Amino acid sequence: MSAATKLLENRWDDSRAAAMSEPERLLYRSNLLGSDKRITNYGGGNTSTKVQQKDPLTGDEVTVLWVKGSGGDVGTMKLDGFATLYMDKLEQLRSIYRGVEQEDAMVGLLNHCTFDLNPRAASIDTSLHAYLPYRHVDHMHPDAVIAIAATRRSRELTQEIYGDEIGWLGWRRPGFELGLELSRFAAEHPNAKGVVLESHGLFTWGDTAKECYETTLDIINRAIEWFDGQLAGKTAFGGEARAPLAPDERRRIAARLMPEIRARIGQDERKIGHFDDSDAVLQFVGSHDLDALAALGTSCPDHFLRTKIRPLVLPFDGDVDAVVAGLDASIEAYRDGYRAYYERCRHDNSPAIRDPNAVIYLVPGVGMMSFAKDKATARIAAEFYVNAINVMRGASGVDVYQGLDEQEAFDIEYWLLEEAKLQRMPKPKSLAGRVAFVTGGAGGIGRATAERLLREGACVVLADIDEGALDGAKSELSKSFGADQVRGVLVNVTDEAAVAKGFVDAVAEFGGLDILVSNAGIASASPIEDTTLEVWNRNIDILATGYFLVSREAFRLFRRQKLGGAVVFIASKNGLAASAGASAYCTAKAAEIHLARCLALEGADAGIRVNTVNPDAVLRGSKIWNGEWREQRAASSKIGEDQLEEHYRARSLLKRSVFPEDIAEAVYFLASDLSAKSTGNIVNVDAGNQISFTR
Ligand code: NAD
């Protein structure tokens, strides 16, 4: 909302909309609205249309309310995201309703109004749409309107900006009672086009989908323009108290602090971090008013359900060690505050206290870190706090910003209906909350491993020297598992500085590390007389020194993070079994195996487990098997290259081929808690080969 903020653009396309059914037009409108986060935040708000449809039982024309169902996001939802309910049955609910004390019970009755056996659960906001006498209703959470709704004089400001076109209703938790209030308001103000809900958001309506959409945009744009006028020439948040550090420095400090925070808040449930140092965040965290505004808490229910009422501000004057030294006390003080809030506000039937740790951590000059059970939740919490910052900037610039009353906030946070929603969430996957760093992640085995770990809910950083392959692997895995969980870092594992930087990048992306899969590799074969020093050094550099460098970095991190750790080396059958004509490779692989055993000894006291997987003859997907190695192996066995796969299968005890997924399965076992009591082990995945039996 600085001068000349870009206004929302009308993106309604008549020719597209004309070809749509009424529900499709509702979806079109919803997706258009949700595509701009200034209109509504992720998962926030809902839309509805009342549609004439044939009743499947009677064949009669009935009015059906199509309204965004429980959960979901208007920007990305599909048609199946809408609940459908008979309007006449919803009307009957009014006569059953006995008052605000039993409004929660009305939610259960919504199921009885379901039209056409639609399995999508109706949301608590259904009655907010049902009883408005308009065909099309939008309920949005635009920063610019919430900024008005979160001021002390929000009623007067609403009147000043919109006159009688938009009404105002005082704060009330969403539910049946608010639905009736909206209905009364609309009846008493037939010319109003909508209403601002204090500390919450905006309702707008219309007789057609297009009219409703355009009204929503117009009302938000007028708020944006009004703020532009009001804030022009004013300094936000009382001005700058601390200038932002340079971008690299901010990231370095984030990578230093995040594992320390994770160490303290992730003992019961592992957390994934997200770092945001966007301009809006830096302006807020570096401002004079930071402490005062942060303490007031967020205002909109959607915001604080994701961010907790308050963030934790970590004072920082340039000395990051001092921040770390003070972390125990800061985090404990936050928890004490949260427990006291719970005790002050709890009711006899309130659900048990939840995780008392902060979600949002603000560091002046550096940025914002957020932590949650998975990356998407951490990222979305950060986005919501940016919404809250925008709201505070607007509200405090024109009036006095006010957070929501503590008891009201508690009643939403610990609402029994909210608790029921949490209880319905699926059980977390076995690697949820874990971060894995996979070297050689763009190769055959590395990529299969990444896929296996992603499938179990881990966040994965692919580290590779091959930029093209890395980009390809990252984008394909992002497509399958979502972009939140996958990152790629360009790293040469033999380069000490590059390895250190790769870990900083990984940690700044996810907040810490739990699993290292050291897998980057090459292969070479030549008789000793023909083995050049260059070839020898290359094997030692990548396979021995490279494994040392990444392990050392991971160990340093694991020790600071105090959450244990799992290291898995991908060595080779050739690390145990000598093979003629490949001494450089075999020796380096043997060094890897012994390094793993030494590290298993060193790491045990910190809960760091180190184990090895030995593959053999994994031809499919492997770049090693594309090149010279393939020719050499075929020549040394005196067979054609196309006979190699069959040759190795026949050579194995189990007479089976080994695939990258087979190696990945063993890595998953050793990286997960399934093998919590194993360290210093070697698992051969080679379809059986007597010369590599361990003893
Ligand atoms: P691959 O060539 O498909 O993958 C290896 C990856 O490591 C490649 O993406 C490559 O770019 C990367 N890499 C190479 N040098 C690097 C460096 N300096 N820094 C960062 N990344 C580097 O091969 P693969 O078959 O998937 O092999 C993975 C591991 O498994 C290797 O350590 C290999 O020795 C071992 N291994 C493979 C087989 C097999 O038959 N495929 C058998 C035994 C052991």
List the helices and strands and how they pair.
Layout: H1 14-18, H2 22-34, E1 46-54, E2 61-68, E3 82-86, H3 87-96, H4 103-110, H5 126-130, E4 136-140, H6 143-149, H7 154-162, E5 166-169, H8 176-188, E6 194-197, E7 201-206, H9 209-231, H10 247-265, E8 272-276, H11 279-285, H12 290-296, H13 301-307, E9 312-313, H14 320-345, E10 360-363, E11 367-372, H15 375-398, H16 406-413, H17 416-424, E12 435-439, H18 444-455, E13 459-464, H19 467-481, E14 486-490, H20 496-510, E15 515-518, H21 533-561, E16 565-570, H22 573-576, H23 583-603, E17 608-615, H24 628-636, H25 644-651, H26 660-671, E18 682-685
Parallel strand pairs: 5-6, 9-10, 12-13, 12-15, 13-14, 15-16, 16-17, 17-18
Antiparallel strand pairs: 1-2, 1-4, 2-3, 4-7, 6-7, 8-11, 10-11
Helix pairs in contact: 2-9, 6-15, 10-14, 10-20, 13-15, 14-16, 18-26, 20-21, 21-23
Bound molecules: nicotinamide-adenine-dinucleotide.
Question: What does it look like?
Answer:
Helix content is 47%, strand content 14%. It is elongated. The mean pLDDT is 95. The protein starts with 13 loop residues before the first helix and ends in a 10-residue tail after the last strand. It has three domains: 14-231, L-fuculose-1-phosphate Aldolase, CATH 3.40.225.10; 247-423, L-fuculose-1-phosphate Aldolase; 435-617 and 658-692, 3-Layer(aba) Sandwich (Rossmann fold), CATH 3.40.50.720. With 695 residues, it is an alpha/beta fold. The chain is built from 26 helices and 18 strands. Residues 439-440, 442-446, 464-466, 469, 491-494, 519-523, 542, 546, 570, 572, 615-618, 622-625 line the site of nicotinamide-adenine-dinucleotide.
